[in-house]
Amino acid sequence: MKLPTTQEVIDLSGKTAIVTGGAMGIGLGIVRRLAQAGAKVVIADLDKKAGDSAVKEVLAGGGQAVFFQTNVANEKDIKKLVVFVVKKYEGIDILVNNAGIYPMVPMAQMDSTTFEKILSVNLKSVFFSTKAVSQAMIKKGTGGKIINITSIDALHPSSVGLAAYDASKHGLWGFTKNTALELAPYNISVNAIAPGGIATPGTGTGKPTSPAMKAILKQFLAKIPMRRMGDPDDIGKVALFLASDLSSYMTGTQIVVDGGVLLT
Ligand SMILES: NC(=O)c1ccc[n+]([C@@H]2O[C@H](COP(=O)([O-])OP(=O)(O)OC[C@H]3O[C@@H](n4cnc5c(N)ncnc54)[C@H](O)[C@@H]3O)[C@@H](O)[C@H]2O)c1
Which end of the chain is more exposed for a tag (fewer CB within 10 A), N or C? Predict the structure, then answer.
């Protein structure tokens, strides 16, 4: 039997990928790797200015990307996104559910509006996109790859103030496993990546501004066996693995990418 080359296995030419929250941070790290591997990438994000700049960067590097303004917590926006992508590219092969928020509010001070917003953006959104995109994938009949960005907090709490966030990410991990079961017969895999501390705009790009964030990061860095924050590309490379045929027999798994922090 002649094995395809590693280059061939990783090649995403002809594939279409949606990356939610792909305008910056971890999402942009994933966009860069998928585009470099040849995918046509649709950046679905709230932030148009950052999204346009991400598209510019990908195009300048010879890749293909477009921006579609989307609030992932709004089902109508997700439906419009899927209609747009299917019409433009005749299908969707890869979906990365990355958009997420992590406001630090101790449970005792949290109001129900904030709690619901965290659950909507981090979890309900993934139900909306997984449902709409998997239907398009099933219709096309060529399988697909769905990648959910959870967190080490899907397994173990990292800090007080993240109770709602941890509930959303534990929920997303459960949703990943169950949808993996439901979609496996259609050759659609659903896997998760659980990042540890990654330097992004959301975490102050490793340079926190608020005293609360500074204290958390200092405490966090001291606990990381690899003694550094992760880079968005550390997640981008694992997303490429899960989006490509390198992960051909994997579904319902969660890959922890945390510099060893869960060991401590
Ligand atoms: N950075 C970390 O240390 C870390 C660790 C574990 C998990 N994560 C997870 O990784 C994901 C990305 O985190 P990040 O640090 O890159 O965040 P970030 O804040 O740096 O970037 C998030 C992106 O998502 C977009 N976004 C936010 N709400 C949206 C919405 N409702 N609809 C569409 N787009 C929206 C933002 O505009 C932004 O472009 C999140 O799901 C987060 O929970 C991050």
Answer: N
